[in-house]
């Protein structure tokens, strides 16, 4: 009997060696299990499932709140701090001139319509072109071609300079409605900042000539009680000029000082 059992074991080991498969250790789990069969887990996997920690290969949840959500919050906070730093840097980067003519706190300048630049260019052409032609003819009749060419060159230079300066002049205009005062700024070479208290306003009207009407803009005028000066804001769209007039009129009645 002992010889038969040893022969059977030797045959089994010879068969495994011939097939190229390593013999399975005693007590180990089978390498290939049938579908639905219970396969024993290694001690590491059982300890992992028992402790409740994730198994190898599974996505690990966030620890102490430092997961994908915390990373997104940190990134948003960093972006917010960078934006705040850029805003403060831009505010501190203002030159003394820009700071002196800046809009009052809590407001910003409302700029006039871009078509104001074309309005002024058309006015420039309407004045200088007839002047160049009529003046050139008169100078030619009086002194010949020499001074006529000089006159025409000066007229062309004036048109070119006025054409180029129309847009910077348009961008310089701005107004802001403060809590108790109305602010106006304008000027390129000489900058001005006008502050008009609402209680000092007496008359607020809107005017628009034929060219302004064709371009859809108007000029708002504010007359005060303290001085004879007239505050003018050109290049406001017609609808905005009417709304601004009504607001200023209502506030002048509210803040009226009886002057």
UniProtKB/TrEMBL annotation:
The chain crosses the membrane at residues 122-142, 148-166. Residues 52-62 have a biased composition (Low complexity). The keyword Oxidoreductase does not apply. Residues 1-83 are annotated as: Disordered. Residues 171-248 form the YdbS-like PH domain. Keywords: Membrane, Transmembrane, Transmembrane helix. It comes from the Bacteria. This is YdbS-like PH domain-containing protein.
